[in-house]
Amino acid sequence: MRRIGILGLGGVGGYFGGLLAKAYYKSYDIEIIFIARGETKQAIAESGLKIITDDAEMVAYPKLVSNNPDEIGELDYLICATKTYDIEDSLLSLQQCITSKTIILPLYNGVDAPERILELFPENEVLHGCVYIISMIFSPGTIRKIGFYEKLFFGSKTVSASKINELQSIFQNAKIESYIAENIEETVWEKFIFISALASATSYLNQNIGKILSNPESKAVYVELLNEIELVAKAKGLSLPEDIVNQTILKLEKSPKEATSSMHRDYLAGNKIEASSLTKFVVSEGVKYGVKTPLYEKISGILLS
Questions:
Q1: Which of 8, 99, 115, 237, CA to CA, is 20 to 30 A from 55?
Q2: Under CATH, which architecture does the 2-182 domain have?
Q3: pTM above 0.90, yes or no
Q4: What's the CATH code, domain 186-303?
């Protein structure tokens, strides 16, 4: 029996957790546990987790939905997809569920999650991971996914291949489009370059993807952010594609024009935003490696003021 906890049932955790719950609801070998509270917990307990896509709807039921560590019990895998500012508090609340054998897969927007998790649980094996998807909470217990593009990448230079392959098998049996990345740090940074520039630009300009692409001045802001973060990545010694900026622009152009970043959605809703992990982090890394990031610095100051 493998017990898998899903921590954070927003656009990422809710969507992929829902696929896992749907696939393994009647399984005797895999248990999917949703870690949730409040309205989300109540909605899922009563009616399951609903996922709405462009052309279909589905409802998934986990084996358990709870935020009580005594009910959750010990976990073999923990997939984390909360906001980056909740990493420490959310994981420490599950301390008794995380044994030395629990494998943790972070699927956050930032890139420093594995290091932060290892500071809390130095004995654990922590994977690196990232996803490409446009999805969000439609209402408590309901996830809305836009478009057909979805990919999950994960890997590790230290965790055994057998454990990584086991998780890949679990994902694939749930029809999750997942890939084991040999150079996972570079893969995560490629995603970070995309989401960091997008989150910073959409929130700063208060525009969605379509408006940024159609407005030359707005697009210039986005491209300049890409140029700055590319310099930081190169200074760190990461082996990224030479045309990473153009590749990232192409990804944006293939995205739904009405979509925006999750940070922009939170900004519009008056919620706490992930600017520390997605914007200020680039400024801090620039300082560490001697790279100037004036536009990131300007936007960071505005978003965090």
A1: 8
A2: 3-Layer(aba) Sandwich (3.40)
A3: yes
A4: 1.10.1040.10
